[in-house]
């Protein structure tokens, strides 16, 4: 009842603003509809701590990582996607908390990188999947990070493939606008070391950014919050100059406590960053990648698969060594 009263008041107070806002704006702010961010009760860090209570690393991993609000990633492994997102957002709604979800199933995912290759079997299969994803959330408050790397991963793609990808993203945004009115959707914009601000602004705009709430930076990467804030501001300067609008942005701070050493795939010596909260020069600082989860068979995660929880990596990341 407490949340529902806040929902009604937020919607009523926002109504005059909604009439004057851009078509992509939602009437309600999901951060005002909830009392803080949701801690995923079934994250890989939580699962490892529960399965290894006698491990000497467990108390530190539990305190510093497993009990910090972070995103849950959804893809082909999630089963019936509408049921999966509906169950997750429903549990968060019941707890009066704001969930962060990552949609990670676009056709030809990680086409040029390869470490996280996969995704839907066709553009039409993706359209169906993302429609069900949004439908599962429905009117409950949520934050969605839309397809990490999808706009930065253009290096080996043909123009036809780029056009195809942008159409999938635009279609996804339309589904959220139609079915999930209290969800803030952020299009992923890579990181400061991937593409220039001018290039990313163009790709965001061509991918449908006007329909999104904003864009996300540094997902699964290590650049400092200051570096990402400067890059986000530069992207907005380009958007303003070229297209006449700007957007809020969020930064993944889960693993950026020591900044980047130039490597992206399980580099050594990284550290957890600022826990999830609003502000910090960006609209929100979020933990989108779980610290300790592998980026793939590389670096200090040699022999692992992408998404596998590596307790020793997590433990060292707490202390920065």
From TrEMBL:
The active site is at 149 (proton donor), 295 (proton acceptor). SUPFAM superfamilies: Glycosyl hydrolases family 6, cellulases (SSF51989). Gene3D superfamilies: 1, 4-beta cellobiohydrolase. Keywords: Carbohydrate metabolism, Cellulose degradation, Disulfide bond, Glycosidase, Hydrolase, Polysaccharide degradation, Signal. The keyword Signal applies. It comes from the Bacteria. InterPro entries: Beta_cellobiohydrolase, Beta_cellobiohydrolase_sf, Glyco_hydro_6_CS. GO terms for molecular function: hydrolase activity, hydrolyzing O-glycosyl compounds. One of its GO terms (biological process) is cellulose catabolic process. Substrate binds at residues 73, 194, 221, 264, 289, 293. Pfam families: Glyco_hydro_6 (PF01341). Its EC number is 3.2.1.-. Residues 1-27 form the signal peptide. PANTHER family: 1,4-BETA-D-GLUCAN CELLOBIOHYDROLASE C-RELATED (PTHR34876:SF4), PTHR34876. Belongs to the glycosyl hydrolase family 6. This is Glucanase. It comes from Streptomyces actuosus.
